[in-house]
Amino acid sequence: MLSTSPHSAVKHSALFQPGRIGRMTLKNRFVQSPIFTQYAGTWGEVSDRLIEYYRERARGGAGLLITENTSVDWELGRTVGHPIRIDHDRFRAGLADLVEAVHNEGAKIAVQLHHTGRQNSQGNTERNEPPIAPTAGITSAFGTAPRAIELEEIPGLIQRYAQGARRAKEVGFDAVELHGAHGYLLSQFLSPKTNKRTDEYGGSLENRARFALEVVRAVRDQVGPDFPVLYRLSVEEPYEGGLSLDDGLAFCEMLEEYVDALDVSAGNYDTADVLLPMHPPGNLLHYAKAVKKRVSVPVIGVGRLTWLLDELDDDVAAGELDFVALGRAQLADPAAVEKTRRGETARVRRCIAVNECISRWMFNGQRTQCVINPALSQEKRASEARRPAPVSKRVLVVGAGPAGCEAAMLAAERGHAVTLVEREAEIGGQLRSWAAAEVLSTEISTLINFYRTELDHAGVDLRLATAVQEADFADYDTVLLATGTVSTGAPDDALDAVEMLATRRAPDAEQVTVHGDTEIALFAALWLAEQGRAVTLTSPSDDIGLDTNDMQRAHLTQLLAAKHVTVLTGQQAPTGPGVVWAQDRASDEGLSETVDDDRVHIIGTRLRGGRMYEATQSGFWAASQI
């Protein structure tokens, strides 16, 4: 298990040994895996935002950064949103700027060459044409039926990858990676689920592998024998009719002759719970280890791996794995690798895997954000916000939830003398409620410990179990009220869900009704079921968990079913004993008479509403203005 002390004694020596991929030497065994940010420009050009995002992560210590999906076919094969382009020479200048920025920070960078194939929508193609696929009519999670790729089109598609690789080498990338994973075009040819062709590109495994192998050989012809070529693949599609693990492993052996490393994942967007795992950490790691037993080229493993660094260090030392890929973890904390190298594992802001980044923003065509990292996508502005303040002030922050902690940490970092007051005996605010149910207990407890560690490191004067009055403001130049929200509308005899979860005190009744269409209602129902209660969740709406993202809602719903929680929608508020209220919340109005927006300010969800994202954003940026 990971140490929770600020300065862990674990050195992770194997992970910080140099490693080789072909002729490329990397300073350590950490790879930033591709994750779509949508930070490119509207037409796929490299933007300043994109460069600053990668620059910050190169500075954070990973040996190799692999760009997000980079389009080789803008007309038919681009991802929905704002992907990078490499399909024309006019994009070379911006790509070269990106390479230089990463190199200047001491890291290597590979470009991922990508084509969506059927995992696209007709409305996203340049001329409103159907997406293309090995076989017509087999829709994906995106829901638009594709047309079949004609035999005479295949050489042109192969050349799109090859020319993308040529441009990558010419502008200075250190390697290319072919995206043959997660249900995109290369994997569509390989999968018997999506490839029903009867020509030489369909049928047997050798025929289904033909397209991918021809792409790899064409890329190799363009870049030469010494330029590193990586291949990312889903080695199994764990659903009926999908690619089997046996075929996936056999395909890895076919690739071995032509590539310098295999980046091993599983699943596609029809099996998103596998592709974007929430729990447990390392659920994809066994795939990489299985591949490693079959090939001699380096293998990269993925799957929430910042939680398993001690185990991974042993795996790398034993030769069971070569490189460790970090994806969402790098969104949450770009300095995770460097902090680990220094032995400061408790100072890593660890991804909690609620998939707001993917399901709330990326899937909705918006730039990717992170609920626990307010600096994501605003790296340059955040760097400026961290500069020392021109005048040191005495700052009081009231409330030690996420907003209050973020504000106190940044204000202290900027040189202010900060006092953080919390009326409860522990920091965390509503995070303490999120940590009750098993599903997020480790993640949220670790996040609370991160805040505790950072407050101490920043020199914040933390005062717990302390209430404040207006008279207490006299000694401060600036006061930030981060007191969050309170329950409203509950029947007189109902128990507030947030308070119940924070105190871990369940009602005495054996049969409990949780009322609400919120995420906290789902957490309350789960925790009560874990305590052995018979639980009914009633929602006033036609669905549950309306304030969370689709993936988190589906995940929690599955857990409710496994715990035999009865879910009823379209319900009136219940009455009587054993009712837990998890519905309406309103701003805490305490000390409102003191607010003048000059010296005393409201921040966090008390100001903005919302949940963790709104809290962390408000707290950080409010402190930047002091």
TrEMBL record:
Cofactor(s) required for function per UniProt: FMN; [4Fe-4S] cluster
Segments forming domain NADH:flavin oxidoreductase/NADH oxidase N-terminal: 15-343
Signal peptide span: none
Q: Provide the alphabetized UniProt keywords.
A: Flavoprotein, FMN, Iron, Iron-sulfur, Metal-binding, Oxidoreductase
The superkingdom of the source organism is Bacteria
One of the entry's Gene Ontology molecular-function terms is:
FMN binding
Entry-linked CDD domains: OYE_like_FMN_family
Query: Is DNA damage among the key words of this record?
Result: no
Is the keyword Iron assigned to this protein?
yes
Q: Which intervals hold domain FAD/NAD(P)-binding?
A: 376-485
- Which family is it part of? In the N-terminal section; belongs to the NADH:flavin oxidoreductase/NADH oxidase family.
Q: What is the protein's given name?
A: FAD-dependent oxidoreductase
Which source organism? Kocuria rosea
